[in-house]
User: Which sequence fits this backbone?
């Protein structure tokens, strides 16, 4: 699980820090930085995949677009703390150069031992089998993008660095999910849906009939008329998706290009919750979903074995969260006077904490003027600063 991130100089994220839980829900006004945070998580994951130029092209961005306009800095610095099964806490920090699209410096620590250091075109590496015993140094004479960990072979990395790479690679963003993309035919999925869900038909085809049947069984809880989810490979290699429904004993087969938006979005989300990805990112998760189906969706997200981060503008989403989940996982994003995105647990704000004692999370949210929260947050921050200074004295 990703426990904590810090990132500096990525769009509106300047000296930004956030502790994460298994389910994180981002709320805030338009332009506060919710989508930017999802993009930043995807950016961090891409470091372990390499090929940053392809990632930028896919998002239709230039390398200049990802840096912050709020600072003169060129590099994007980030830190990630990961809790890995059987290994414990691992800390990875790096500085990414926007011109070379490469992490020009990196460090990884585990149990106080530095397993990796990259600096000045040199790499110091402690192999997992030799941890604490021998460090190997090598000159970096090959071209790559992102983290050097994206290029090294498993036998060079050892168990901990391999596990770190796998954990970060398996952050998967669907922040551009849209019906237009979901209806597209694709030849292959490479094991994921794509940022917009454009590989849905190929992904479901490659997952096999057992996975499609599992998805069908889940969807029948809210779409009892569903009869089958079928895929087939066309002569040209494109994968075709059909959804069959049963009405009064008759079967109606509908291709994906004519299927309703809400069903396609649920298919995409639920198929990812059954995947091997570790951390899933969804933007404005409620879009296209009938209010009657929101509770089903929220329950699936919160109860998932995956780590999940979503953004929402809907108090309905929050209303289906238990109070303890809301206290830990609902994060309010806002911009300070300099335009940098800031984060605070929504229900740690005194006025919201008081409302939560008598209202549901969604009711407390809708009963609050978000534009008026900043002054309360500022007062809270000043008080915390005074308390910290008093403690130091």
Assistant:
């Amino acid at each position: 699980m990703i426990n904590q991130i810090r990132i500096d100089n990525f769009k509106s994220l300047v000296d930004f820090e956030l502790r994460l839980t298994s389910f994180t829900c981002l709320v805030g006004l338009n332009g506060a930085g919710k989508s930017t945070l999802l993009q930043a998580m995807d950016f961090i994951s891409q470091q372990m995949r390499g090929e940053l130029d392809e990632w930028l092209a896919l998002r239709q961005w230039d390398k200049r677009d990802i840096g912050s306009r709020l600072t003169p800095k060129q590099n994007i610095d980030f830190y990630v703390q990961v809790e890995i099964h059987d290994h414990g806490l691992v800390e990875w920090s790096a500085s990414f150069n926007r011109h070379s699209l490469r992490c020009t410096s990196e460090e990884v620590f585990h149990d106080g031992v530095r397993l990796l250091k990259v600096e000045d075109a040199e790499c110091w590496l402690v192999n997992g089998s030799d941890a604490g015993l021998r460090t190997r140094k090598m000159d970096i004479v090959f071209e790559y993008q992102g983290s050097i960990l994206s290029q090294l072979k498993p036998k060079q990395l050892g168990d901990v660095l391999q596990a770190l790479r796998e954990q970060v690679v398996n952050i998967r963003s669907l922040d551009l999910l849209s019906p237009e993309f979901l209806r597209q035919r694709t030849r292959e999925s490479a094991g994921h849906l794509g940022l917009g869900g454009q590989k849905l038909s190929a992904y479901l085809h490659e997952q096999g009939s057992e996975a499609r049947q599992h998805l069908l069984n889940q969807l029948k809880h809210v779409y009892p008329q569903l009869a089958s989810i079928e895929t087939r490979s066309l002569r040209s290699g494109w994968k075709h998706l059909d959804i069959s429904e049963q009405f009064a004993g008759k079967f109606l087969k509908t291709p994906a290009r004519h299927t309703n938006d809400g069903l396609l979005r649920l298919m995409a989300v639920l198929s990812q919750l059954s995947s091997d990805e570790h951390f899933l990112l969804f933007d404005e998760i409620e879009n296209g979903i009938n209010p009657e189906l929101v509770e089903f969706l929220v329950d699936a997200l919160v109860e998932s074995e995956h780590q999940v981060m979503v953004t929402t503008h809907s108090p309905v989403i929050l209303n289906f969260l238990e109070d303890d989940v809301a206290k830990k996982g609902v994060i309010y994003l806002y911009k300070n006077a300099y335009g940098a995105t800031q984060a605070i647990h929504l229900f740690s704000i005194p006025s919201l904490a008081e409302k939560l004692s008598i209202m549901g999370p969604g009711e407390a949210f809708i009963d609050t003027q978000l534009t008026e929260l900043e002054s309360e947050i500022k007062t809270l921050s000043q008080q915390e600063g005074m308390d910290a200074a008093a403690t130091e004295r």
About this structure: Residues 56 and 62 are 6 Å apart (CA to CA). The first helix runs from residue 34 to 47. Confidence is low (pLDDT under 50) at residues 128-132.
